[in-house]
Every structure is written in C-alpha cells, then in structure tokens.
Automatic annotation (TrEMBL):
Keywords: Hydrolase, Metal-binding, Zinc. Residues 12-193 form the Metallo-beta-lactamase domain. This is MBL fold metallo-hydrolase. One of its GO terms (molecular function) is metal ion binding. It comes from Desulforhabdus amnigena. It comes from the Bacteria. It holds the Pfam family Lactamase_B. The keyword Zinc applies. The keyword Acyltransferase does not apply. Its cofactor is Zn(2+).
C-alpha cells in the first residue's frame, strides 16, 4: 500500500494519498489545498484517482476536492449531514470564496453512512460516523492495515474544536470513546492536523480521556 502525507492550505491541514500498488488505484483524503502538488505526485506514481474522501465539510479539508476531480476524475464523498456546511460563510467554502454560495460545482457524488465499506482495488475503508466537530463528520478505517483517518475528531494529545456550527463536545467525546478507542490499540491514528499517534497512546495519555 502507498501512503503519503501532505500538509496543505492556509491552516496546515493533513491530506493523505492512499494507493493500491497492484491495481494502481488511489484515493485522496481531505484535500484542503495545494492540489497541483497532489496531482503531480499522483501522476509521478502512475496512479488512477478513484475517490476523494472527505471527513467533513470545513473549507480547510475540502477546498481542492473539486479541483482534483476536474484534473484527475474520481468521485467526491461526504456525509449528507455536512453537505449544508459546504456553502457556509464561516466554516465552508463560503468562507474562502464569495461566489461559493452559487457554485454548482460544490456537488457531492456519493454520500457516506455508518457501516459503508468503500473498496478501491485491495483497499477497504470502513466508514465510521464520528460527529462532534461537525454533524456529519466521519472517519475512515483501514482495518486490514490497522490505520484510521480521523479528520478533526482526535489529535495527538487533544481533540477537535466543538464550538463551530453543528458541533457538540458530548458527541465528540462519545465518538472517540465508542468508535476510535474500541479499535485495536496498535491502530495508527492519522489526524486532520498535527502528528500521527496511536489508539493505545491516546487512551493512556490524552488529557480529555484520562
């Protein structure tokens, strides 16, 4: 499996490129900027972009989703509860583009739900609903590799903000306890900002849970 990390955009968001070496199929998770760099790398690796997976709809995680699609194809995935946030003027694309409220290109191709299994080549992503940072926030679990991409639900030593529209501290804490901390302790956690961590380390040291 190919797994590469890019720090992108004005808020230094973690964007991930995940590829299947056998089928040359790839997905990009949370493309919040710097699409030219991501496109260049996908082409260098001779990968075919099948999907753009968004953990949530805040602009720093989705900003270049449609640019990637226009250049390389691939379906854009998002939970329906977060779709209304796409044009929001505080946290969505409306915050970075005056015309976003009227842009038809902010179209989502496929909706995400709890329990969905997304298969791309040999890669199988389990969709976990992890609301709290946003109402439709999801995480993508590669159970075969003990990897989870958690967006802004959990960080190394911290958690995501819950004071944005649709946020809920209680929901976020439940999401972490019930969906992430129930995974195998060796599971590597790839967050939306900052360094990677593990389930075991966060259960043992994260001040919001110990």
């Amino acid at each position: 499996m190919i797994l590469e990390h890019f720090t992108v955009g004005m808020l230094q968001t973690n964007c991930y490129l995940v590829g299947d070496e056998a089928s040359r199929t790839a997905v990009v998770i949370d493309p919040g900027g710097d699409s030219d760099r991501i496109v260049c790398r996908i082409r260098e690796l001779d990968l075919n972009l099948a999907a753009i997976l968004n953990t949530h709809a805040h602009f720093d995680h989705v900003m270049d989703a449609w640019t990637l699609k226009s250049k390389l194809g691939g379906d854009i995935y998002l939970h329906p509860k977060d779709e209304p946030l796409l044009k929001d003027k505080m946290v969505g694309m409306g915050a970075v583009s005056r015309s976003a409220a009227g842009v038809s290109a902010l179209k989502v191709d496929r909706s995400l739900r709890e329990g969905d299994l997304l298969t791309f080549g040999s890669m199988r992503f389990n969709v976990l609903e992890t609301p709290g940072h946003s109402p439709g926030h999801v995480s993508f679990h590669l159970s075969d590799a003990d990897i989870i991409f958690v967006g802004d639900t959990l960080f190394a030593g911290s958690i995501g903000r819950t004071d944005f529209i649709g946020g809920s501290y209680d929901q976020l804490i439940r999401s972490v306890r019930e969906k992430i901390f129930t995974l195998r302790e060796k599971t590597v956690v790839y967050p939306g900002h900052g360094p990677q961590t593990t389930v075991e380390y966060e259960k043992r040291t994260n001040p919001f849970f110990v």
